[in-house]
Predict the structure.
Amino acid sequence: MTVFTIDRIAVGAWRAVCYALTNTGGTLLIDPGAQPDLLLRWLAGARVIGIVLTHCHCDHIGAVNELVDAHGCWVACGADDVDGVADVHRSGFDEEGVDYTVDRIDRPLGEGDVVAWGEDSLRVLHTPGHTPGSICLLSESQRTLFSGDTLFAGAVGSTAFVMGDTADMRRSCARLSQLRTDLAVLPGHGRPTTLAQERPMLRSIAGPQLGGGDQALNWREGSWW
């Protein structure tokens, strides 16, 4: 069984983490969010075959077009965020004073879809709340969850942005809290963590979804720094 390698780089003012997953089939990118020139240098020599976006926010999508132009790769994101990557208000680019939209999405992703490259694959978990189309990507073989801005070390994604939804986030937290506890969690910002470490917080935030408490969801973006 092959094992893909995982490289990471933080980009942009929000220090969003871009992941490069590489095996014999090529390199799959997760969330190339900013600084396309830096990312192109970082990826020198790589054969980028695809890009997966965990959600539509500007700090996670801001280098997609340039990487597609350079590598001719496909682009995928959660089905409910396809419109978001083409809308500067939903993505938040309007607040940055930037007129940037992703040129195209080749594959809308839904719950249970599989993203395969080489001999590896990631299973899509639809985890709305931060955005309607937020997804996490689960590697069963590597026991790793790429959680985007749904789950950080010690926090979850804010629901205060356009189309954020607290009830959806509670349901997503409930769902993640029931995954196997030996998963490594690689979030969209900040340091890695584990599901075992985050499960008590997830269960507390899920509240009535699991018959537990009712912890507030008022984390601000940046609480993971």
Residues 130 and 159 are 5 Å apart (CA to CA). The first strand starts at residue 5 and ends at 11. The radius of gyration is 16 Å. The first helix runs from residue 36 to 42.
